[in-house]
């Protein structure tokens, strides 16, 4: 019995390290899945630059990413991609319209 307690204590101390490692791997896989699913939904010319910023954890049920498509001098589109963790399906919002600044509003 005296030998069992130190061994059990050591095993219990190592358990969180094992769980943490697999958890990090799982989150990296999740982020890669969100990135791939969101990029597949982007409709942009070949010369456009697409950036996908995945929220590291999402919510309990969904992943989320900010998607920016840069058209060079022609501007950029910003959208939100929502990823269903259960089904693996993703949906993209429409592009956000640029916010009107106070200076622009005063000139109208």
Automatic annotation (TrEMBL):
Residues 1-21 form the signal peptide. Keywords: Signal. This is Uncharacterized protein. It comes from Paracoccus caeni. The lineage of its organism: Bacteria, Pseudomonadati, Pseudomonadota, Alphaproteobacteria, Rhodobacterales.
């Amino acid at each position: 019995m005296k030998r069992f307690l130190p061994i059990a204590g050591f095993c219990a101390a190592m358990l969180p390290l094992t769980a943490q490692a697999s958890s990090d791997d799982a989150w990296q896989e999740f982020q890669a899945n969100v990135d791939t699913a969101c990029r597949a939904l982007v409709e942009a010319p070949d010369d456009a630059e697409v950036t996908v910023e995945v929220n590291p954890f999402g919510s309990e049920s969904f992943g989320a990413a900010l998607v920016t498509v840069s058209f060079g001098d022609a501007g950029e589109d910003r959208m939100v991609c929502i990823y269903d963790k259960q089904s693996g399906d993703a949906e993209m919002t429409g592009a956000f319209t640029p916010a009107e600044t106070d200076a622009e509003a005063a000139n109208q």
